Amino acid sequence: MSSSDSPVFTTFYKQYQSQLISRITRLVGCRETAADLAQEAYIRLLGHRDLSNILSLSAYLFRIGHNLAMDHQRDPANKIEYLLLDETLPCPLLQPHEIVSLRQQCRLLLDTIASMPQGCRDVFLLRKIDGLSYSEISIRLNISEKTVQRRLVQAMLRCHRSMNQIVIR
């Protein structure tokens, strides 16, 4: 059998594919990775120029698969320890006390916005929520850009003071 007999090789590979994937899976612990490595083993077998001196093509295919699995395991990036969570890293999920704190901050911020004078509140919401520029806000509210800036500063100071109260308490 030469490597140019692609249909013959395809039949050969399909005959041993599931068995090869199962063996590699036992070595690497991941069926998807094993399937990739089995495919690579097949490609490497196809790449051999002279297969006439190989006594058993199936044994040779399994040896290539085994070697690829061992190389995969030796690569530090593929070691299972790297895939496990590092105990020193903080949990990416919010803890219950953090959720309570964020809810309090949101409530305080919403209360602060609601208590702002109408002009400050309008400018603040148009800028921070709607993302309008100073000139767009001035046109929409029919006020000068300087007034927009002044009201936004007032609104931001109110929010800043309110949020600092949480820290001080």
Automatic annotation (TrEMBL):
<dbReference type="Pfam" id="PF04542">
    <property type="entry name" value="Sigma70_r2"/>
</dbReference>
<dbReference type="InterPro" id="IPR007627">
    <property type="entry name" value="RNA_pol_sigma70_r2"/>
</dbReference>
<dbReference type="GO" id="GO:0016987">
    <property type="term" value="F:sigma factor activity"/>
</dbReference>
<feature type="domain" description="RNA polymerase sigma factor 70 region 4 type 2">
    <location>
        <begin position="107"/>
        <end position="159"/>
    </location>
</feature>
<dbReference type="InterPro" id="IPR013249">
    <property type="entry name" value="RNA_pol_sigma70_r4_t2"/>
</dbReference>
<keyword id="KW-0805">Transcription regulation</keyword>
<keyword id="KW-0804">Transcription</keyword>
<feature type="domain" description="RNA polymerase sigma-70 region 2">
    <location>
        <begin position="12"/>
        <end position="75"/>
    </location>
</feature>
<dbReference type="Pfam" id="PF08281">
    <property type="entry name" value="Sigma70_r4_2"/>
</dbReference>
<comment type="similarity">
    <text>Belongs to the sigma-70 factor family. ECF subfamily.</text>
</comment>
<dbReference type="InterPro" id="IPR013324">
    <property type="entry name" value="RNA_pol_sigma_r3/r4-like"/>
</dbReference>
<dbReference type="InterPro" id="IPR039425">
    <property type="entry name" value="RNA_pol_sigma-70-like"/>
</dbReference>
<dbReference type="InterPro" id="IPR014284">
    <property type="entry name" value="RNA_pol_sigma-70_dom"/>
</dbReference>
<protein>
    <submittedName>
        <fullName>Sigma factor, ECF subfamily</fullName>
    </submittedName>
</protein>
<keyword id="KW-0731">Sigma factor</keyword>
<dbReference type="InterPro" id="IPR036388">
    <property type="entry name" value="WH-like_DNA-bd_sf"/>
</dbReference>
<dbReference type="GO" id="GO:0006352">
    <property type="term" value="P:DNA-templated transcription initiation"/>
</dbReference>
<dbReference type="InterPro" id="IPR013325">
    <property type="entry name" value="RNA_pol_sigma_r2"/>
</dbReference>
<dbReference type="GO" id="GO:0003677">
    <property type="term" value="F:DNA binding"/>
</dbReference>
